[in-house]
Write a structure and sequence with these properties.
23 helices, disordered N terminus
């Protein structure tokens, strides 16, 4: 009992001496004291009672009016694994130049502390936590659900964080109006296609709004131009997709009523075979291989169009598409968009005797609307010639 009193009195005396240094010592003395205390706190064999005893002094030094004193505390404690939370947060709350490097590397920041900084810290501190190599799953989840764009971007820069599909959907749903965030999402190779498609349509609808506000074009022209831009952007996403993702994206479009005849005919006019095959297979309820064997079989396209519930007026252009695909395969050709469109136009002009002039003009009009730009011009000219001849 008496020994306990003696240790206690020595400790209290020591602390009194230390506090006297703070009150009356110069900057050099306070820096020396800060170094000694940091060494004491960092030593693994220092008893907890001593660390507790000097804590009030360390806290005072951490907010000392002299930056050099504060710097010693922040730098020398940045590698200590078991700092008292009061001291940890005292340093974190200091000026950015000292606090942020400390916060970036301190091993004393446990998962609870990490969440605390994300909840109440300013953006700079939240960004620092987001970039830590030991960021926890809970911290990442909090950032995805609640944090500002800058913090999310800092987390996306962190190689230790791998975003899941659900994370990308959550971020897009919450922050999809932020250009920088959307750019970062679009740069991800594994971004789900439904997000790419939604973004493509959003961008086009903003263009429509802009045109309407500024009266750049008559309403009808603007609306057609935007529909073209939307479908063109969606088609670009589909054309570049791996097979599994393409099938998922086609299902997504169908569920949103976006798998339109116009989109399918555009894909056909541009020779995007994988997209046409996947779209018709989905609408008909067939496996892609079976759909392809029917589409390219004799007389199969007409029944396919009917099975898919597409307008009968689509049958002519889709039949011409199937014929061009088969011929190109026989010739061993991989046709680009313009070459495919030219062949399609040629087929529509020179074959299909059963087509009435009105129907043939309708099919050529489709090419004039949906094919590659140079082919469109030829188709429009041909349509005008046919109209004059009639």
């Amino acid at each position: 009992m008496g020994l306990g009193m003696q240790v206690e009195s020595v400790t209290s005396l020591d602390v009194t001496v230390l506090e006297a240094v703070i009150e009356t010592g110069g900057v050099g003395a306070r820096i020396a004291l800060a170094r000694q205390l940091c060494t004491l706190i960092a030593a693994e064999d220092t008893p907890d009672t001593e660390c507790e005893a000097v804590l009030p002094v360390a806290l005072k030094l951490a907010v000392d009016e002299e930056r050099a004193v504060r710097a010693v505390i922040a730098e020398e404690l940045s590698t200590v694994a078991t700092l008292h939370p009061d001291l940890l947060f005292c340093v974190i709350a200091g000026e950015d130049e000292l606090a942020l490097p400390f916060l970036k590397i301190t091993p004393s920041l446990n998962p609870w502390h990490m969440l605390a900084v994300l909840r109440v810290g300013d953006e700079a501190r939240q960004c620092t936590v987001a970039s830590r190599h030991d960021i926890t799953a809970e911290a990442a989840a909090h950032i995805i659900k609640s944090s500002a764009v800058a913090v999310v971007l800092a987390m996306m820069d962190n190689d230790m964080v791998k975003l899941e599909t659900t994370d990308m959907h959550a971020l897009y749903a919450r922050l999809g109006q932020s250009g920088p965030l959307v750019d970062r999402l679009l740069a991800l190779p594994n971004l789900p296609l439904d997000i790419r498609i939604t973004q493509a349509k959003r961008a086009a609808s903003r263009m429509r709004q802009l045109m309407a506000e500024r009266s750049w074009l008559p309403a009808n022209d603007a609306s057609e131009l935007v529909a073209d831009a939307e479908d063109g952007a969606v088609l670009q996403v589909l054309a570049n997709a791996p097979v599994e993702e393409l099938l998922r994206a086609i299902s997504f479009l169908a569920a949103k009523n976006l798998l339109t005849p116009a989109l399918i005919i555009r894909a056909a006019c541009l020779g995007e075979m994988r997209v046409v095959e996947a779209a018709l297979a989905h609408l008909a309820g067939y496996a892609p291989q079976r759909a392809a064997s029917i589409m390219y079989g004799r007389g199969g396209m007409k029944s396919m169009v009917s099975k898919c519930g597409l307008p009968a007026s689509c049958a002519g252009i889709l039949q011409a598409y199937a014929d061009v695909v088969l011929e190109a395969r026989e010739e061993g050709l991989n046709l680009g968009r313009e070459s495919f469109g030219r062949r399609l136009l040629e087929a529509l002009m020179t074959r299909y005797e059963m087509l009435a002039p009105h129907d043939r003009a309708k099919q050529i009009e489709y090419v004039g609307r949906f094919a590659e730009e140079r082919v469109r011009k030829i188709a429009r000219q041909l349509k005008a010639d046919i109209a004059r001849a009639a």
